[in-house]
Write a structure and sequence with these properties.
The complex is a heterodimer of chains A (about 300) and B (about 290). By secondary structure, chain A is an alpha/beta fold. Chain A has 2 domains: about 5-125, Rossmann fold; about 135-300, Alpha-Beta Plaits (2-Layer Sandwich). Chain A has 10 helices and 12 strands. In chain A, helix 3 (about 55-70) links the parallel strand 3 (about 50) and strand 4. In chain A, helix 2 (about 35-45) packs parallel to helix 3, helix 6 crosses helix 7 and helix 7 packs antiparallel against helix 8 (about 215-230). The longest helix of chain A is centred in the middle third of the chain and has 23 residues, at about 170-195. Chain B folds into 2 domains: about 20-90, no CATH class; about 100-285, Hypothetical protein af1432. Chain B is built from 16 helices and no strands. The radius of gyration of chain B is 18 Å and the shape is globular. The termini of chain B are far apart. Classes of the chains: A alpha/beta (about 300), B mainly alpha (about 290).
Chain lengths: ~300, ~290
């Protein structure tokens, strides 16, 4: 159940808003005292805050700033309730809020604004800024979900080989392009073979995770590898492509010939009862990665040990 | 010297809304997209047969939003990165030619022929990415589509001049627009952030010396253009076959002996293409018997 803090006087229309939101399945608490609410917020985070500007203009501004900026809770949705007559004078630069509700708003409008703000937060909260893909929180949640599912799934751990020297040779922005390319490639391939059942997350840097039904895992991995090797050429300078490698200097100042990035994929099959915890999945993936990394070029390995299977 | 006409044309190019596609191609693609058994590569194969859709797909994937500026030069690569849903939206929102003329189909056929022959020449030369050179060939006359769709008054004047004075399309363009279709196409592709290896062959296919980095690719497109005109596949605005530049022949290593080997390959391609172009032509006639 989503928890909403309503910081306002305990009078209509706020009490009515609280009532209709409760009917819609939200847990609503009204706090007429902003200081008390502040403490409450810091120690037990709600899913959303509705705060009335008129309650205490200065403190409201401070509280919002503290939450959004100091605690980096940018993903916590905050909606400011304002007197419509004040709107022309409000400088939105001073308020780090996600939306506003006018004091005279109907119950329907309040419900819609709340729903929308929560949806927006869900979409944005954990997403990687470079690729827009879900990050670690969502990845963990998704892995936990398939571990306890009855179906047979595959969790693929994807990363790049020789990415650092590539970054060193061409600079970070070219590196970012390759990361975005890999992200788009994973999303489209997973979408093609698994449709809405599939999932792609971005752990960070050049590390990605995908989750697909087990029976398409090989196909996804093969296609990602084949397409990546083809696409990466677009990001290598023509001179280096002709030479067949990148030239960089290592820490000793010695000139090295380095191949351009390739992709490694370790696939862990998951079925009901195989794992209890997502950490076990990652551990198996780490073992596989150890072998995958020894093979030069793009490659994938799927854990075929099935003896534990019921 | 300030050239008002050039300025006016460029201004129009900057505010260009969207180029129309042949209605039967859009209809075919819409049908394919609705059919669940059709795969992305099959759709790519049809998109690759239309210069306007191809330029749209490449424009999108090379845009700042997707984050691969000037990197992606082929439709197949673009589709892998954009995904099926984006392609679907692109096709559904494609605008079509309201009023068709049979020479619209002629120009489209000509472009297809040049794409095919560019690919054959590039493969024969052992160039690294023949598909990319074929794409440059497909787009080489995009400037003419722009004239037809967005510079309508000037287009009519050019047409009349070619008919009445017996000059080439390009000569008429230069007199009326103060620039030619190669420059128009190159200008747009450059604005759209397409890779230089596509922009240069399009912008310089009539003047090899303008090409700086991709001379061989440019020479390939020039010769492909001439070969397709000489063969009479499609129609590109006027009936004349221009003379190839010495330099182009040298860069591609094209002589009679080589032509003897390559011509049969080209004929096979033209034969294949005819099935597709006739299908599109018939669909057009059904809808629009006046053409």
């Amino acid at each position: 159940m989503k928890k909403i803090l309503l910081l306002s006087a305990e009078v209509p229309p706020y009490t009515i808003w609280a009532e209709v939101l409760t009917q819609k399945g939200y847990r609503v608490e009204i706090f007429p005292e902003i200081q008390e609410a502040g403490e409450r917020v810091f120690f037990s985070l709600p899913d959303m805050i509705l705060v009335s500007e008129g309650l205490h203009p200065e403190l409201v501004k401070d509280l919002i700033f503290a939450l959004k900026c100091d605690l980096s809770l940018a993903s916590l949705p905050i909606l400011l309730i304002v007197d419509p007559e004040k709107l022309p004078r409000i400088d939105w630069h001073e308020y780090f809020v996600d939306d506003f509700i006018c004091e005279g708003a109907s119950s329907e409008e309040v419900i819609s604004r709340v729903k929308l703000a929560l949806l927006r937060a869900e979409r944005l909260a954990d997403n990687n800024p470079l690729t827009g893909l879900p990050g670690n929180t969502s990845i963990l949640r998704k892995i936990e979900e398939v571990i306890h599912d009855d179906g047979e799934w595959a969790v693929g751990y994807v990363d790049l080989d020789n990415f650092k020297p590539f970054n060193d040779a061409y600079g970070f922005s070219r590196g970012d392009e390759v990361i975005r390319m890999l992200a788009r490639l994973l999303v489209n391939t997973v979408e093609f073979y698994a449709g809405p059942k599939g999932f792609v997350g971005h752990i960070g840097g050049d590390d990605f995770v995908f989750i697909v039904p087990l029976d398409v895992a090989d196909k996804v991995a093969q296609e990602v590898i084949q397409k990546f090797d083809q696409l990466v050429l677009n990001f290598v300078d023509p001179e280096d492509r002709e030479r067949g490698c990148l030239l960089t200097t290592d820490r000793q100042g010695v000139l090295c010939r380095i191949p351009w990035p390739s992709v490694s994929i370790a696939i862990v099959p998951v079925w009901a009862g195989r794992f209890k915890h997502y950490g076990e999945v990652a551990a198996v993936a780490a073992q596989l990665k150890h072998y995958v990394k020894k093979v030069p070029g793009s490659t994938y390995l799927i854990d075929r040990r099935k003896e534990e299977r019921p | 010297m300030i050239d008002d006409k050039r300025r006016e044309v460029k201004k129009k190019l900057r505010t260009l809304k969207g180029l129309p596609t042949l209605p039967p191609i859009v209809a075919k693609l819409t049908r394919m997209i609705g059919d669940e058994t059709v795969s992305a590569p099959q759709i790519a194969a049809v998109i690759e047969r239309d210069q306007v859709l191809t330029s749209k797909v490449l424009r999108l994937v090379n845009s700042a939003f997707y984050g691969f500026p000037r990197r992606i030069s082929t439709v197949s690569n673009a589709i892998v990165l954009l995904g099926f849903n984006v392609i679907r939206t692109l096709v559904i929102t494609a605008s079509i030619f309201e009023m068709m003329q049979s020479r619209d189909v002629g120009l489209w056929e000509h472009s297809l022929g040049v794409a095919a022959v560019s690919g054959i020449l590039a493969r024969d030369l052992g160039l690294e990415n023949p598909e990319e050179v074929a794409t440059a060939g497909l787009l080489h006359d995009l400037g003419k589509v722009v004239e037809r769709a967005s510079l309508v008054e000037d287009y009519k004047k050019i047409q009349e001049k070619v008919r009445n004075e017996g000059v080439t399309w390009r000569e008429a363009e230069q007199e009326i627009l103060h620039m030619d279709h190669a420059e128009i196409g190159g200008y747009l592709l450059n604005r759209w952030n397409l890779p230089e290896r596509l922009v240069e062959p399009v912008a310089s296919h009539h003047e090899l010396k303008k090409a700086r980095r991709f001379k061989v690719e440019t020479a390939v497109v020039q010769l492909a253009d001439i070969l397709v005109r000489a063969r009479g596949f499609g129609y590109s605005g006027d009936p004349w076959v221009p003379e190839p530049e010495e330099k182009a022949l040298k860069l591609v290593g094209l002589d009679e002996k080589k032509l003897e080997v390559l011509l049969p390959q080209m004929e096979v391609k033209f034969y294949e293409l005819k099935f597709f172009t006739e299908e599109i032509r018939e669909a057009l006639l059904e809808k629009n018997p006046a053409t």
